[in-house]
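Hey team,

Filing this mostly as a record. A colleague (T.K.) asked me to run one chain through the structure pipeline before their review meeting, and I want the input and output archived in the tracker in case anyone asks later how it was produced. No errors, nothing strange. Just documentation.

Input sequence:
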Amino acid sequence: MRSVRARAALGATLVVAVALTVAGLAVLVVLRGNLTDRAGLEAEVTAREVAGQLALGATYAELETGDEDTHPVQVTDGAGRVVAVSKDLEAISGTGTSQVVPVAPAPAPSPGDDDDDDDDDDGNDPARGEVSSDPPDFVNGTATVDGETADYRFAAVEATTEQDVTLTVHAGAPLAAEQEAVNTVRTSMLTGLPLMLLVVAGVTWLVTRRALRPVEGIRRELAAITASEDLGRRVPEPDSRDEIARLARTTNETLTVLEASVDRQRRFVADASHELRSPIASLRTQLEVGAAHPDLLDVPGAVADTVRLQVLAADLLLLARLDAGERPGRTPVDLGALVREEVSQRAADRIPPEVSVADAGSLEVTGSRGQLARVVGNLLDNAERHAERSVAVSVRADRGDVLVEVTDDGSGVPEAEHDRIFERFVRLDDARSRDDGGAGLGLAIARDVASRHGGTLTVGTAPGGGALFALRLPGRAEAGREPTAGEG
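Output structure:
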């Protein structure tokens, strides 16, 4: 069953069916119990009336058993023999004996017996009969009265006659009313339950269909987006505030992020192709000229173009790995030593950097030494490219972090461009040649690497008026947790 509507309707129907069945059985049990108790009370009243007559000295022939048709009575003695029955009682079961023909009773003691004389001599009254005050015993059985057999609820009450004879009176009350009521209720339930289940299933189907109608609209729109590959389209958002509306909003947010990612990827591919075209074309021209005129081959220029291609390819490869979610290493890196090493390799630069490394506090961070060296190198390249006379770099501990600041005395970065310069293939010095200005990937790579190391890279204004790039990374005490499985 693939339809959510069908599963919801079936599930609701099953739940209601189980609930109604349990409730119906409980109602039948309670109804049967109440009616049976009522019949038992009627039987007890009849049994105590007959027992009272016996206790007051009534003979078996004088017993009045009330309505014999509805309240059959059977009286037995201590030996289980039947001594009296109600009129027209033809058969009985459930009372301990099925006999309905009274046996000849034993003669009662006469008033002139010696025992009675002795009692009178002692000054005591003759013995009086009594009815047991104990709760009666109840049992279900059948009785045939005047040719009709029916079910009865029997109550057994003990009575003691004036002759000190213990008798048990079994009186019955019909269970026909109880059976008729239970059957009527059961028939009504069996008839009404299927109809109610059909109503529940139909209502659930319609409600679920109405509730899922926006979901179908979302599905159709997503299918159209997939077919057209137009990520600018959006799914309809219902006016409600339920889960479906939140799903639609989340879907549109995802489409927005996906559209931006695809656009960024397309721009990246276009810009990368454009950047690669220039050095490749230059290198090809030089090689073609060299092939035709070996004496005119510009070997240094070809080498420079080759190096530029190699650097650009390395940058593109690193960006691709970062975009793929590659995690940095988890090895300790001393940023102070790393900065000194990078600066020492730039002694022959146009403007050699001045380095200042603080001695106080730990300068260790956790991450990939190669990637962090790439960040420092890119910041130094950018500063040297824009500086007029000086480039300075400092490393110090700052509130649990390690802060690396690179400054230059150039023209600085306009405040409106503080975020834009970290975008890929963006160069604010478009008037410069590509050889001097770079491809515009260095700062983008630096910020991506800093972010994946749990740090930040921001730009501001140096005290001398140039640019100030601040690289902040968590110190090893803050970031030095053990790597989890799969981290490299």
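Quick notes for T.K.: The longest helix spans residues 176-228. The first strand starts at residue 73 and ends at 77.
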